[in-house]
Structure formats: structure tokens, C-alpha cells
């Protein structure tokens, strides 16, 4: 995929909107339900996954895809991209999809744990 200034600007504009939307959903969830459980994060992950299912399913392309999928949903939640990539991999190779999920969770949590531990020292 070629990178151009126009492409970067579409992603940036969408990312700004998605990030603000994530903040608003998360703030609303804290006001409604408190901090005992990350309801806001759960909500944006589920909403983002549903939205990318629709947008990926209808086959957006070009600037609209960059703005909505990479930008808005990327700023809203990267879990939506993870969901789309997992679904596409599943269609091609279920085992590759399972490997991707397992590697993402295992390596992501391990990287978090190590870096969190190092930062706290």
C-alpha cells in the first residue's frame, strides 16, 4: 500500500475522532459503573469489533477505508483490527488464526508483564 500525505491525513483525522470517542465511552462507563471493572474498554472492544465486521464485510477501499477502519476504528480500539485479521486468517487457515490469537495474547501479556516489572523497579 503506497503511503502519501493524503493517506496519512485521512488516518490522522479518523484517529483523532476515534480516540475522542474512546475517551468519551470510557469516561461515561466510569461515571455509570465505577472503576471496579474496565467496562469502557470492554465496550469499545466489542463496539469496534462489530463496526469493523460491518465495514470489512462491505469491502471498503481507498480513502474511506483509511479514514474509517485504520483511522476511526484504529483510534477507537486496535482490538477491532485484531478481530478483522483473526477472521480473515480463519477463512484461509483456522490453525494459523488460532496461532495468531495465542501468540498475540501470550506475547502481548508477557511483554506487558516484563515491561511493567522493569518500569516499577
Automatic annotation (TrEMBL):
UniProt keyword annotations, A-Z: Cell inner membrane, Cell membrane, Ion channel, Ion transport, Membrane, Metal-binding, Sodium, Transmembrane, Transmembrane helix, Transport
Subcellular location as annotated: Cell membrane
Regulation of this protein's activity per its record: Na(+) is not transported, but it plays an essential structural role and its presence is essential for fluoride channel function.
Catalyzed chemical reaction(s): fluoride(in) = fluoride(out)
Primary location class: membrane
Annotated residues for binding of Na(+): 74, 77
Recorded topology in the membrane: Multi-pass membrane protein
TM stretches of this protein: 28-54, 66-84, 96-119
A Pfam short name: CRCB
HAMAP family cross-referenced by the UniProt entry: FluC (MF_00454)
Family: Belongs to the fluoride channel Fluc/FEX (TC 1.A.43) family.
Annotated NCBIfam families: crcB
Known function: Fluoride-specific ion channel. Important for reducing fluoride concentration in the cell, thus reducing its toxicity.
UniProt protein name: Fluoride-specific ion channel FluC
Species whose genome carries this gene: Plastoroseomonas hellenica
Source organism phylogeny: Bacteria, Pseudomonadati, Pseudomonadota, Alphaproteobacteria, Acetobacterales
Gene: crcB
Amino acid at each position: 500500500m503506497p503511503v502519501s500525505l493524503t493517506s496519512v491525513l485521512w488516518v490522522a483525522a479518523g484517529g483523532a475522532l476515534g480516540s475522542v470517542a474512546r475517551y468519551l465511552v470510557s469516561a461515561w462507563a466510569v461515571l455509570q459503573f465505577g472503576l471496579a471493572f474496565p467496562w469502557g474498554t470492554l465496550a469499545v472492544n466489542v463496539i469496534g469489533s462489530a463496526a469493523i465486521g460491518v465495514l470489512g464485510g462491505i469491502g471498503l477501499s481507498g480513502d474511506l477505508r483509511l479514514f474509517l477502519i485504520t483511522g476511526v476504528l484504529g483510534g477507537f480500539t486496535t482490538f477491532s483490527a485484531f478481530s478483522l485479521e483473526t477472521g480473515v486468517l480463519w477463512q484461509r487457515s483456522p490453525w494459523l488464526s488460532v496461532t495468531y490469537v495465542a501468540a498475540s495474547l501470550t506475547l502481548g501479556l508477557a511483554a506487558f508483564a516484563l515491561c511493567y516489572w522493569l518500569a516499577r523497579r
